[in-house]
Amino acid sequence: MKQEADENLDPATEAKVWPCASHRSHTTIAKYAQYQASSFQESLKEEQDRIAAGAPKTDDSKKKKTPKTIKFGTNVDLSDEKKWRPQLQELMKLPAFARVVSAGNMLSHVGHPILGMNTVQLYMKVPGSRTPGHQENNNFCSININIGPGDCEWFGVPDAYWGVIANMCEKNRTNYLHGSWWPDLQELYDENVPVYRFHQKPGDMVWVNSGCVHWVQAVGWCNNIAWNVGPLTARQYTLALERFEWNKLHSFKSIVPLVHLSWNLARNIKVSDPKLFETIKGCLMRSFRQVCLSLDFVKQCGLQTKFHGRTRTDASHYCGICEIEVFNVLFVKEQERRHVVHCIDCARRQAPRLEGFVVLEEYHLNDLCQVYDNFVLHSVQGQTLPGQVPTPPPSSCTPTPLT
Ligand SMILES: [Zn+2]
Question: Between β-strands 152-157 and 196-200, what pairing exists: parallel, antiparallel or unpaired?
Fold first, then answer.
């Protein structure tokens, strides 16, 4: 529904509310482009007709009219390197910190595509198209370039205030993680939440820092491209990990497989920042402990794990029931002729002694031990640029077919 940037009205009652109404549908780039162009032509014609009739230029904000339903072409996938080669090559001219792929970007160490995060997405907009309030997946940073021709208006709140906004979401009958909401600015000011508000002109690149809560509205007709990046800093890693844990508590899927990523970081990069090092090492330690306890439990149940291995580009696994990331020890059960991966908790809920489950292992315990031990703090003197020389995967990690 098209609305003023300052407010979000309930379509039925016209009261100021936080929840945003929208319906989902699918279309093609060409069809949306047609809609976008005809919406522009229509608006141009309306304006010309008004001028011809001798009426002054209309000011939308002073005019009462019935709200119009508009369409927003979100999350158009530009990951196919064959289809979009010239466009993607153009983006490689950006400075390293903003590039889709770079050694200093944590998301380049995931080893597989996460659509829209380490690949590019396109957003095609008509005036009023809204991206409701959110933080990026697992608090990663994002890069957003407005291709134009129109402007976008941005609203941003620093990470430190996300909890205040989450509480305000509940008060306004929506949910911070699962809901779709457009904050009321006055309510934010009343709670002393600072809001940055600015226009993104064509050609402007917006950097959304780790954890920044933001919401965006198109002022004119425009297309934007966006992706995520993860600078190798203690702050980024910590915020990502904290959100990973928070998501678990609130049954919200973490799009970034942070455990898998942490092991890859340990393999690939040299860390000289003590805080970043300690935080990654701590995560590896807890992950290793979880692996050992899981394997012990499998043994106690009288089962044998099968070595499954994995290739470097295999996607990470998520529990088919609760969507938590499952690392290294996979509890697999055939359901409706599909092999479904379970986390240990969901597996035990179904079968306390794992009856009917096949347990697969992705890495040998020795390999994980080695990665853990070899991951040490590097002194700044002997420092090489992080991630410049990726180490090869452990030799025993050759894949075997799923049995
Ligand atoms: Zn589960």
Answer: antiparallel
Domain 257-374 has CATH 3.60.15.10: no
Distance from residue 289's CA to the centre of ligand 1 (Å):
18
Sheet holding 152-157, edge to edge: 130-134, 213-218, 152-157, 196-200
CA-to-CA distance for 228 and 226, rounded, in angstroms?
7
- Parallel, antiparallel, or unpaired for β 205-208 and 325-326? unpaired
Residue 13: the pLDDT is 86
Ligand 1 centroid – CA 384 distance (Å): 39
CATH class of domain segment(s) 29-73+121-229: mainly beta
Give mean pLDDT in consecutive 10-residue pieces for the chain, a chain of 403 residues: 81 88 88 92 92 70 63 89 93 96 96 94 94 97 97 97 97 96 96 98 98 97 96 98 96 96 97 97 98 97 94 90 97 93 97 97 96 94 53 48 50
Gap from CA of 253 to ligand 1 centroid (Å): 11
CATH topology match: 29-73+121-229 vs 257-374: no
What is the distance in A from the centroid of ligand 1 to the CA of 250? 13
Predicted pLDDT of residue 66 = 64
pLDDT value at position 176? 97
pLDDT score of 207:
98
pLDDT of residue 12: 84
Give the Å distance between the CA of 343 and the centre of ligand 1: 4
Ligand 1 centroid to Cα of residue 356, in Å, is: 16
Between the CA of 322 and the centroid of ligand 1 the distance, in Å, is 4
Measured CA to CA, the distance from residue 37 to residue 79 in angstroms comes to: 25
**What pLDDT sits at residue 37?**
92
* Å from CA of 331 to ligand 1 middle: 10
Domain spans, the chain: 29-73+121-229, 257-374
